Amino acid sequence: MTAPLDEKLEPIYQDVLRRNPGETEFHQAVREVLETLGPVLVKYPEFAEHKVIQRICEPERQIIFRVPWEDDKGETHINRAFRVEFNSALGPYKGGLRFHPSVYLGIIKFLGFEQVFKNSLTGLPIGGGKGGSDFDPKGRSDSEIMRFCQSLMTELYRHLGEYTDVPAGDIGVGQREIGYLFGQYKRITNRYESAVFTGKGLDWGGSRARREATGYGTVYFVHEMLKARSEELDGKTCIVSGSGNVAIYAMQKAMQLGAKVIACSDSSGMVVDEKGIDLKLVRRIKEVERRRISVYAEEKKGARYIEDGNIWTIPCDVALPCATQNELTAKDAKKLVEQGCIAVAEGANMPTTPEGIRIFKDAGIAFGPGKAANAGGVATSALEMQQNASRDSWTFEFTEKRLEEIMVNIHNDCFETADEFGEPDNYVVGANIAGFLRVSRAMVAMGLI
Ligand code: NDP
Ligand code: 2IT
């Protein structure tokens, strides 16, 4: 099912497979990028000469460590944690931490690899990295989460720094976790180094609009894609998978721009509310009470909860996958297209399988890949670092305006690059090539490092 690779790129990909056995998500992320880089090597042979692609596929540094911690009953648990410092040609390693039982090296490496290109696309001074642990935060008390974060940071702190590596949140890591992690970093190092983390609380160095940024940015990206096709979000029906940080604020911005959001989900099931999702209720259930999305249907008349339901079977104009990798398959893509979907943007990282992406492409619908469409989160993290560096704090309106400008720029960059390389409207090609070019130029300029 996969497209053939350019003859220069095939051996590089084979090498990635051989050197990273069993890391299927990492293979998938690398292959998707390599499939689009053939024409770049023709136009810019210097990148092949300098072995930029081989270097870009190999993380600069990979840290794997044990995290022992005690639960509330006094029982000891051992988790494994990772930080993959992928590429620092454009700035300090930057990228989130994920706490989820499915985490292993292959997941962190795929996320770190994606992050390099995404961060490059933002145009801001941030390199790429990612970390996390196979720790499952579900059902854990605040004290257990705190002890886990403190134990993790007791090792990780030595690898971090404002100019070295700057983590943030991802699945299972939000402001609560960043607080515990930052607190322990401050305690061990005796330094109030605000810019060593992003996604902080507003009282202790956080940026306004960071919480909203990924979801808002994804919807700004959709808005731009639709505008390019003389369409608009106003009046469109929208479905959003997940009900975490990215999903909630994607729903909020979609609603603000006049769309009607009728379904969202979590890993247990989905809710459908034809009258339009009540976001206040979702936020209370998810952000305050940390309960399951099924509670929504218990409290909301007319809403349906479907356990294990597949959200992509719900007819919509716009679909926003905002939960996790490979959650939208070829079958789902076919169904969405058949039922009239005109745009898909990835709030999550790599949520659409390669076959799914091909179906969207063949159907000619607007498809915004995660690297571009969800870059608003990390871009606003860079704005948080900027505020920390100048000991300043911007208004919500100003920060959101910057975010919007960045998303418009990313959209235009992808759009124009796709055009330049003979694949108009192909945002996958545009994002991969535009992201690749900036980081590669920097790598060549810095010599063999
Ligand atoms: P959250 O932990 O806040 O929310 C995750 C949501 O996705 C939850 O509803 C969760 O359901 C669901 N989910 C997670 N794993 C699975 C799974 N294996 N199967 C089905 N559903 C799942 O995370 P975020 O909203 O921060 O992240 C969502 C996606 O967005 C991820 O792909 C992340 O990498 C990406 N992203 C996040 C950014 C950020 O700034 N936070 C920036 C850019 C991308 P449940 O509660 O049942 O587990
Ligand atoms: O995937 C991502 O871009 C994130 N989880 C956010 C990273 C960040 O450093 O803000």
Describe this structure in words.
The protein has 449 residues and is α/β, with parallel strands linked by helices. The protein has 3 domains: 10-56, no CATH class; 61-193, Rossmann fold, CATH 3.40.50; 212-373, 3-Layer(aba) Sandwich (Rossmann fold), CATH 3.40.50.720. The chain is 48% helix and 15% strand. The strands form 2 sheets. Strands 9-8-7-6-10-11-12 form a 7-stranded mixed β-sheet, sandwiched between helices. It has a 5-stranded mixed β-sheet with strand order 1-2-4-3-5. Strand 10, helix 12 (330-338) and strand 11 (343-345) form a beta-alpha-beta unit. Helix 9 (245-256) runs antiparallel to helix 10, helix 12 (330-338) packs parallel to helix 13 and helix 16 (396-420) crosses helix 17. The protein is globular, with a radius of gyration of 21 Å. The mean pLDDT is 97.
Largest sheet: 7 strands, mixed
- The SS-based structural class is alpha/beta
Distance between the termini: 36 Å
Shape: globular
- In the CATH hierarchy, the architecture of the largest domain is 3-Layer(aba) Sandwich
Average pLDDT level: 97
Annotated CATH homologous superfamily of the largest domain: NAD(P)-binding Rossmann-like Domain
CATH class of the largest domain: Alpha Beta
Total number of β-strand segments?
12
What is the percent of helical residues? 40-55%
CATH fold-level label of the largest domain = Rossmann fold
Short description:
The chain is of the alpha/beta class and 449 residues long. The chain has 17 helices and twelve strands.
Secondary structure elements and their pairing?
Layout lengths: L9 H10 L4 H20 L2 H4 L2 H5 L4 E10 L5 E12 L5 E7 L5 H18 L5 E6 L8 H15 L8 E4 L6 H15 L20 H19 L8 E5 L3 H12 L3 E6 L3 E4 L6 H10 L5 H6 L4 E4 L10 E4 L8 H9 L4 E3 L8 H10 L2 E3 L1 H4 L1 H15 L6 H25 L6 H19 L4
Parallel strand pairs: 3-4, 3-5, 6-7, 6-10, 10-11, 11-12
Antiparallel strand pairs: 1-2, 2-4, 7-8, 8-9
Helix pairs in contact: 2-5, 2-17, 5-15, 5-17, 6-7, 8-9, 8-15, 8-16, 9-10, 12-13, 15-16, 16-17
The chain binds NADPH dihydro-nicotinamide-adenine-dinucleotide phosphate and (2Z)-2-iminopentanedioic acid.
